[in-house]
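Anyone able to model this chain together with heme C?
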Amino acid sequence: MASLRKLAAGAAVIIAVGAAAFAYLTAPAHVAASALPGRQADIANGQTIFNVGGCASCHAADYKANPLGLGGGLALRSSFGTFHAPNISPHPVAGIGAWSEAEFVTAMLKGTGRKGEHLYPAFPYTSYQRLSLDDVRDLHAFMKTLPASDTPNKPHELGFPFNIRATLGVWKLLFLDGEPFRPDPARSTTINRGAYLVEGPGHCAECHSRRNALGGITAEGRMAGGPNPEGKGFIPNISQHAKDGLGDWSVADFEMLLTNGSTPAGGFVADEMAEVVQNTAKLSPADRRAMAEYLKTLPAREGRRPPAAK
Ligand code: HEC
Ligand code: HEC
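re: yes, here you go
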């Protein structure tokens, strides 16, 4: 009997420790205000990060008419339900005007919201977590200069269990590594700059990759294309695979695409990619060149080209 009681007590301890460890491991992470020493923000750099980050593509109510009105916009359909991009204009109530800098940095780098809740990865913080702290701070300073919009947020339309934000703690444990961008010392400064822009703010992999059933990008499917998560169409393989991907594109071809959306086959990209190009067109030629040089180094990965690929 005594040994049975001991066993039960032991099991209870293991469960309690397990639950505490689980709560600890899946707790939303924060960046403290003390991690943000005083500095002069570079607003022009913030605008560059805003452009390459494509913030307006999701958060502008009417991207074409008013690309700087961040009153919330896009309805993002997915197999988990529909997300509505919130108001991130400087409005103090409807937007994020009352957020501290640390709260903004926390959202961008940790995917944690102002109330300490996990944010959904439909907000591509799995890529934005690679941003440097200074770039996020400059981005925030730039966004403060934009017009405020009083449009209230629309609630997401998600089924159970995806409507429970706490479940995202497990998702983050699996798919959010919390690592900053690390330049590769074996590569040129230009290629490292391109890698940072493509993998971090540019978040190209968020659309151009295959995902598993939990919505995480698979290693072998990274940049290898796949069905559009929004349900319509197919997003092309942009890896250097000779047959399935863009192994036959030159650095200059990539540069041209990022400048005006034209492809070597003589066409122009459409749909979401046309909006991405509207953003990359605003970058400096040096940044586009850096992105192009990096894209030319992407490992070749299999993944069929869509039937109608140009
Ligand atoms: C692919 C679409 C998409 C892009 C691109 C995007 N976001 Fe978002 N963002 C979202 C969605 C969806 C949410 C809501 C997440 C949630 O409710 O958990 C969100 C939430 C946020 C939040 C939290 C707002 C709140 O009220 O809690 C901030 C801050 C934010 N985004 C900033 C940005 C910035 C800055 C950029 C550009 C660097 C950006 N986003 C790019 C879709 C996007
Ligand atoms: C919001 C989703 C999305 C994002 C983010 C995105 N793309 Fe695309 N991309 C697409 C879609 C969709 C197409 C196909 C467009 C078409 O068929 O006209 C495409 C097409 C392309 C093509 C042409 C491929 C071909 O076979 O012709 C290239 C190259 C490309 N994207 C590179 C990039 C790079 C580099 C980035 C990051 C800066 C990026 N994309 C970000 C959705 C996206």
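Residues 53-55, 57-59, 76, 83, 85-86, 88, 96, 104, 107, 113-114, 119-120, 122-124, 128, 139 surround heme C (ligand 1) (CB under 6 Å).
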